[in-house]
């Protein structure tokens, strides 16, 4: 019965976001204990640390793009829009158009890319992140970056990974490319 109810929850998510939940259904079907571990992970992934939606999704989107998971990127785009992040900011985050973003979001986009590249230039931005959002905000950004990397790795490992080809933001089609991953420093 519990598997039935959890599967209904997954189907609801699939309908709401037009997102393929087969990998989660397969985990649920194969190992209920593993599925519960997956759900526990979701609480870390959802930690906000008092941050507004835009900085969280800036980190999440850049992290998911780094690992090139098309359906996951689209899911996060849809969730960002649902959370109230303006479409022009979502597009600028995906395209790494720093000039089109408010400074605090541009810093998070750049910081995220530097962190993912293991570039010491992130050390120069971290104090600004702390000054804007505090230690809790930095932790929320760290959790956002870290957790978003799990989903593509999990999906690719289980055979469900898809390369990112296009992302739709309010009927505008974007094609992320390697140039959007480049970092400076």
Structural commentary:
The chain has 185 residues and is mainly alpha-helical. The chain folds into 2 domains: 45 residues, no CATH class; 135 residues. Helix 3 packs antiparallel against helix 8, helix 4 packs antiparallel against helix 5 and helix 4 runs parallel beside helix 6. It is globular, with a radius of gyration of 17 Å. The chain starts with a helix and ends in an 11-residue tail after the last strand. The mean pLDDT is 90.
Fraction in helix: 55-70%
Regions with little confidence, pLDDT below 50 for 5+ residues: none
Mean pLDDT: 90
Walk across the major sheet and give the strand order.
1-2
Q: Roughly how many Å is the radius of gyration? A: 17 Å
Distance between the termini: 54 Å
Largest sheet features: 2 strands, antiparallel
**How many DSSP H or I helices?**
8
Strand residue percentage: under 5%
The counted number of beta strands is: 2
Taken in chain order, the helices and strands follow as HHHHHHHHEE
Structural class: mainly alpha
Protein name: Carboxymuconolactone decarboxylase-like domain-containing protein
InterPro entries: AhpD-like
Organism: Pseudoalteromonas rubra
């Amino acid at each position: 019965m519990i598997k039935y109810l959890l599967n209904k929850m997954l189907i609801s998510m699939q309908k709401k976001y037009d997102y393929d939940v087969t990998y989660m259904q397969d985990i649920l079907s194969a190992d209920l204990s593993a599925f519960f571990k997956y759900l526990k992970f979701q609480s870390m992934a959802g930690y906000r640390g008092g941050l507004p939606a835009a900085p969280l999704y800036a980190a999440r989107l850049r992290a998911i793009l780094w690992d090139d998971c098309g359906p996951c990127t689209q899911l996060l785009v849809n969730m960002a829009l649902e959370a109230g992040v303006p479409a022009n900011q979502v597009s600028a985050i995906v395209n790494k158009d720093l000039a089109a973003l408010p400074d605090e979001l541009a810093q998070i986009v750049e910081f995220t890319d530097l962190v993912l590249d293991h570039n010491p230039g992130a050390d120069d931005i971290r104090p600004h992140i702390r000054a804007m959002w505090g230690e809790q905000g930095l932790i929320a950004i760290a959790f956002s970056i870290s957790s978003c990397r799990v989903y593509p790795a999990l999906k690719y490992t289980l055979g469900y990974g898809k390369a990112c080809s296009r992302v739709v933001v309010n009927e505008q089609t974007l094609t992320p490319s390697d140039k959007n991953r480049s970092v400076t420093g």
